[in-house]
Write a structure and sequence with these properties.
Structural class: alpha/beta
Order of helices and strands: EHEHEEEHEHEHEHHHHHH
Number of strands: 8
Radius of gyration: 21 Å
CATH topology of the largest domain: Rossmann fold
Strand order of the largest sheet: 2-1-3-6-7-8
CATH superfamily of the largest domain: Response regulator
Number of helices: 11
Distance between the termini: 79 Å
Shape: globular
Number of domains: 2
Length: 229
């Protein structure tokens, strides 16, 4: 009897890591599209949302492993999404992804229950790794942002208190403020936030008026004094 020819090795699917399901929450469609492209097959995007109400509905409906969450959204903020989803009994893990690296933004969403916080300067492979780690139960932060969180939960006096002047600004105005204070040109701010140069100019004028400042140099000094840069 002749021997059967050798059969090619079959892939062992059991050894392959499970791809986490993800919901993308960001109010800029082009940014969500870019994130999808960067992540490729590293995750399974099962839903998208662009505001707080939509985010809560999509997360409750799809129950993903990880919610990739911008913290500044129409209708509220990322912390609102985390709290409202939890109130409906859905056990989702949240990873904040924002242009902001300000201490109060980081601490606010972590106190609400997010498992990690990374900024939009992160690379695609780094973001995919962060999502997998959060899906596995880890907490993920950059070294600088981790310091904010450690200070907050240790009761450090360095944690920012309520700033009445800063509270006068909208979330979008705060984003523009931080980028301008870091030396970004108006065109660079527009590109970073996916808005027009005219809109940037409008926000800067509003910030200067609300804070009673005269120019961007005073604005930079104001932001630096509050450790927002």
């Amino acid at each position: 009897m002749s021997e059967r020819p050798d059969q090619p090795d079959q892939p062992d699917h059991a050894d392959q890591p499970r791809v986490p399901t993800v919901v993308l929450v960001d109010d800029h469609r082009m940014f969500r599209t870019g994130v999808r492209t960067e992540l490729g097959r590293a995750v399974d995007v099962v839903g998208e949302a662009e505001d707080v109400d939509q985010a809560v509905a999509v997360v409750v409906a799809t129950r993903p492993d990880v919610v990739l969450l911008d913290i500044h959204l129409p209708g509220g903020n990322g912390a609102d999404v985390v709290r409202r989803v939890a109130a409906q009994g859905v056990d989702a893990r949240f990873l904040a992804l924002s242009v902001s690296d300000a201490a109060e933004d980081v601490i606010g969403v972590i106190r609400a229950g997010a498992r990690g916080y990374v900024t939009k300067s992160i690379t695609g492979p780094e973001l995919a790794d962060a999502i997998h780690r959060v899906a596995d139960g880890d907490a993920v932060f950059s070294s600088r942002l981790a310091g904010f969180v450690l200070d907050a939960f240790a009761g450090s006096p360095e944690v920012p208190v309520v700033d009445e002047e800063l509270d006068r600004l909208t979330q979008r105005e705060r984003e523009v403020l931080r980028l301008i204070a870091r030396g970004y040109a108006y065109k660079e701010v527009a590109k970073e936030l996916f808005i027009s140069v005219k809109t940037v100019e409008t926000h800067v004028s509003a910030v200067l008026r609300k804070l009673q400042l005269s120019n961007r140099h005073e604005l930079t000094r104001w932001a630096t004094d509050r450790r927002l840069v």
